[in-house]
Amino acid sequence: MTKGAPPKRLVVALGGNAILQPGEKGTFEEQDANVLKTCRQIAKILKKGHEVVITHGNGPQVGNILIQNERSGDVVPSMPLDVCGSESQGFIGYMIQNNMNRAMAEEGIHRDVATVVTQVVVDPKDPAFDAPTKPVGPFYDSKTAASKMKERGERWVEDSGRGWRKVVPSPDPLDIVEKQVIKVLLEAGILVVACGGGGIPVVAEGGAYRGVEAVIDKDLAAERLASMIRADMLLILTDVPRVCLNYRQPGQMELGQVTVKEARDFMNQGHFKAGSMKPKVQAAIRFVESGGKAAIISSLGAVLDAIDGLEGTRVVPGI
After folding, report:
1. In degrees rounded to 5, what are phi and psi of residue 103?
2. 17 is annotated as an active-site residue
3. Within a 13 Å sphere around the CA of 158, how many CA atoms are in the beta-carbon half?
4. Is 280 an annotated catalytic residue?
5. Residue 152, C-beta contacts closer than 8 angstroms, at least 6 positions apart
6. Active-site pick, 199, 218, 292, 312
7. Is residue 32 within 8 Å of 91, Cβ to Cβ?
8. What are the pLDDT digits (tens) for 180-213?
9. CA angle at 63 for the pair 59 and 68, rounded to the nearest 5°
């Protein structure tokens, strides 16, 4: 941000490495320490005068909850996937709230923090429900997977040579049930944590909402949130400083600033993998097309420079 530039409303979409690093077991102490480092970076953004809304992933966390469910099913009733997602929103939100308070105190910032357990509306007729692709939960051998498919009518796939996993739909996010609550909190100056893990997928039914077994992509949900609260910028943080063409191949090239059209062309050419960089680029495109000034994909460590236009891949409107 150049000197004298007005503050911005930012949605900061945290990647999995902001909570759990590769090779870690996932203890509370490990995750809490990672979250503190993340929150210290966010506190520096607040120090510059920006308004921030935080979203986050929950893949390893909800996976562990599913394993706990599976192994304790003969002692206590197992919970459905949407409930497990809400549990992960709660405990990750708790870690972020506590550590944001600590990080803000270090920077001399005084602000309340609130986590909103967020429901995200999907279409029950979304084609994703006919073709589940998102692996969830523990790995099993083929015999166990076949038994579960027969007994429960579930769909399972072999995953990367590590075993068989259940797959669920990944429908497109359409609306956020708590969007008005989030807007009210923002207007009151409260730092909001919302749409954790892509939000709890629900469908409208009889004037209310019903949870469904699905997983919403966290970056696409962050885009919906950013567009609905009229954020100036969507920051999608991952483990690389920039988006690359020909990633880890001969001719790899980092992208700086690209237009929506350029980003879409690269995506259509197959440069970005589904389940990895593709949804991030797709979310960036959608946000800018919905009126956002810029969407940035970068690493957590480079976030301040990314906001100032010195780092990251920045997706902007065309000329």
Report:
1. -65, -40
2. yes
3. 5
4. yes
5. none
6. 218
7. no
8. 999 999 999 999 999 999 999 999 999 999 999 9
9. 155
